[in-house]
């Protein structure tokens, strides 16, 4: 008797979580490991948000809430969308889940039928394709690269659409590349999408982590017609450093929300009542800490990219958003030492081999680009202190210099 469900044959454990866990294990054993793997801010949750959670507990807000979220949190989400994005929603168009990942999972479980195609630009967040497969959909991967700024073009999108296309995933700023689409970029994609019978999922989780005065724009913000065909997903984890609080939210077609509510009602029910109270204050309260974190991320962004560009064989573009660098290592892969490693280890993924050796011999944790659909790169999170960034990149440089021999 097979104990494991067949549906799990098509998915793998999250590589980012696995690498972070291994790095933490090595740290616990006493090694000085620099961890570039974690996709979460290193700052504490702002004090006024934590105080809101304490107040909620003191007031006895420790019971079940409606499955799709408290009325007051939904009102804060609606106000956020209207004031920050110019988007108007009703309460029956909003759902709150246990993190943005659950909202995304419930969306696909509620909308996909076997064989429905989902267009996913690569590099992509590691969970997109696996969640689609779990929902019995078919991921259609469209490759972008450093030459296009890691952005899908309207021509690529048009070519990928078939009669089976159900959903297009749009993520800006992007994990893993930090690429962010301009208004004109989004308008060009909307020209392709608007006439089609396709749902666009806009993953806006890094919305507030965007640099150089770039305007944040998602497809729903371009036109009312596009808004009706877009499901927006966001959360408080990245902008407010609340990864452990597990609050995400979605907005869109009320029929989709109703069915997501049914899915969630048969799995987790409501998200934590305490976390919902904290998220309400995060969205509606003082935004100063967000600006302060962004300023620190910007300094780190420039630091890590500058240091990476000094390493032979490495090409790194300046990310427009999020807190990741996604350097291309193709020049390194051509070095004699790396070719010897390939022959010795018999590893088919170049980026995985590089990251394995980097952690095992140089005590630096990074995520191989193959996990995001691009084996030419590695992902480095700069959500850590400047001294650690300098130390970690120095070790990467030393490994590359060793590989030149």
Key features?
405 residues; alpha/beta; 7-stranded mixed β-sheet; 15 helices; 12 strands; 12% strand
Rg is 21 Å
Order of helices and strands: HEHHEHEHEHEHEHEEHHHEHHHEEEH
Distance between the termini: 52 Å
Q: Strand-residue fraction?
A: 5-15%
Query: What's the shape?
Result: globular
Regions with pLDDT < 50 over 5+ consecutive residues? none
Mean pLDDT across the residues is 96
The percentage helix is 40-55%
Overall number of strands: 12
Content-based structural category: alpha/beta
Strand order, largest beta sheet: 2-8-7-6-5-3-4
Total number of helices: 15
Could you give a short account of the major beta sheet? Answer: 7 strands, mixed
Description:
The structure is a single chain. With 405 residues, the protein is an alpha/beta fold. Helix content is 43%, strand content 12%. It has 15 helices and twelve strands. The strands form three sheets. It has a seven-stranded mixed sheet with strand order 2-8-7-6-5-3-4, with helices on both faces. The protein is globular and about 60 Å long. The relative contact order is 0.16. Belongs to the class-I pyridoxal-phosphate-dependent aminotransferase family. Keywords: Aminotransferase, Pyridoxal phosphate, Transferase. It comes from Leptospira bouyouniensis. Its cofactor is pyridoxal 5'-phosphate.
